[in-house]
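[Meeting: bench + compute handoff]

Bench side (C.D.) handed over the final construct sequence. Compute side (W.E.) agreed to return the predicted structure before the next meeting so the bench team could plan truncations. Sequence as handed over:
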Amino acid sequence: MNDRSCDDDTRAGLEAHHAESWSWALACCRGDVARAEEALHVSYQKVLDRRARFDGRSSFKTWLFGVIRLTALDQRRWSWRRWTRWAPLSEAEDRADGRPAATESLVGEERCAEVRAALAGLAPRQAQVLRLVFYHDLTLDEAAAAMGVSPGTARTHYERGKERLRRRLAESPSS
């Protein structure tokens, strides 16, 4: 093994968290499957060739989710810059929202769809922290590290997100 390749523990960590990493990449890419695949691939490549290095200041999962989030954000910025550079001005003015619609790739019960819809209606950071805590079993401090924000900021988004989610679900037709 050369000094640029990762160790067995890192490979094992990637394998152990792959399913959750895919889910997180999909959330970071706002449901766009192709972008999530690319973000996850690039994230893994960064880890495997040691451009991203785990330093032990958090759990491996928290660190990996941070790498995925930052990679997805970088790709979204790059894509937006490229689009604005080449898109005609009139098209840019007509485009109301640069985000792709979230896909409903997981067929589930009606309530699951309502929860996903309610989460999609939250502010991005509120939705991120709720997904990390509820779906990926991270603590608020770990979620803050994965999101690149302070624990206090994560707690604020968490509390506000829970309250907005509770209200949105109470307003849904099946409640």
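W.E. noted at the follow-up: The chain has two domains: 1-99, 106-175. C.D. will use this when planning the next construct.
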